[in-house]
Amino acid sequence: MFDWTILSLFLYFPEDKTEYIPAAITSAIFLIAAILTMRFIMKKSKQEEEKTKALEEKMLQYSQEDKKE
Length: 69
Prior knowledge:
The chain is mainly α. The protein is 78% helix and 0% strand. It contains two helices and no strands. It has helices spanning 4-8, 20-68. The longest helix has 49 residues, at 20-68. It starts with a helix and ends with a helix.
């Protein structure tokens, strides 16, 4: 299928390990951003859920009031 020599062209392992530092910093930044984004989405979702529950309760009360009349 793929020849090993072709695939090995894309692999690069530097002798100087300090070249990994920018990649590690970038990965850490994106990881932190992903975590913060997920927490933001979860917080907003919880707020929307509370709003929806309040609206459902309000609608239930109105429907019960209409049945009484």
